[in-house]
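Chapter summary example.
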Amino acid sequence: MTMDFADALAYLDEHASYDKTGRVDDPSTDSIAALCAAMGDPQHAQPVIHVTGTNGKGSTVQMISRLLMAQGLTVGTYTSPHLERINERIKRNGEPISDEDFAEQVASIAAVEVITGVRPTYFEAVTAAAFRWFADVAVDIAVIEVGMLGRWDATNIVDAQVAVVTNIALDHTEFAGPALADIAREKAGIIKPGSAAVIGETKPDLVQIFRDEGGASTLVRGDDFETLDNSLAIGGRALDLRTPTTIYSEVFLPLHGAHQGDNASVALAAVETFFAAPLSEDVVHEGFANVEMPGRFEVLGVQPLTIIDGAHNPPGADVCAAVFFGDFHPDGRRILIVGTLRDPDEMVAALRADEFDVVHACTAPSPRGVPGDEVARAARRLGCDEVYVHDSVDAACRAALANADIDDAILAAGSIYVAGAARSALRKYAT
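The structure predicted for these 431 residues follows.
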């Protein structure tokens, strides 16, 4: 079976919902396991560092990948969702899979579907394509980000040498249950008997859940590793990081927000654990200095200051607001572009929309996007005075830039889909 890139996208679209797949949301990895078994189990072709967590897992995956690359390894990285193009999800040494290779891998999944009779979901198909491509290009190690929770996620057919949990907050409670412990138990499912667990969460009762999962070993932030110094620097953070073996001083990380310092300690501990040895200081400094995180508090321009952030839940939105109001102090107005896939009252409150001078509410570009007028009503209920409504992120960005002065600051946030659409629009309309 042959496909071009457009054919591959069409195939995935045909697998994007229950109506198209006939699949129910039962907790199981049986379907992707069957698909991969028919391809020779490519998910076992190389060692894996597997990363979950409520927030910070994307940043942590990128840091781990860059540290491994600085060590000289060829690294496959799988993340989700994407900002602008689906190729971004599957990378080799930081470079996205080509359109041609992506189409070839999806065509293979489609062929296996015919042979096995297993109809994968969109995420299962892309995940299987990533596993197959990593095996084809013979990466030395794969760094895999969980899509949702962990235990029943499609990525969890890997047997990770290192299983990483960044943190635990309430999210996806419709699938995992109402309490933090329920979330933790689902995320703990990525820890296999042979896995070394690296835990960024520090609440003792939650840490015990991860210990009880039965990994080969467990390292916990605060006890076994930590960020000793986490200072604001030009263009990012200056860090001193302690691992079980070493203190690494004056490490520059080109990401904004103190929370990224915590993510850095988790990433460094995970890579040390994988090698069972400390890293050279040169590797640590090079790896962190090369980290790029599009869509995670990404500064796109300076006059006016334009920032996008993909925070998709209240804890992430709260961190986004803390960084925006704590690290940036514009002389002009603060302007918020906001759209969301979830309760708009929770999200606009977490983003501290009432502390912005202007709010541009819009509909996130997703079938689950909350209509812009509902987001606007939530902002007004919070106490926002100057609120505008737009049907699209593009329209909101165009209006925000058209009415912004060079001393103003614009933040586009509320969903990774908003961040992705804003990334294109803000660059397009910037003068």
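To summarize the output: The chain is about 40% helix and 20% strand.
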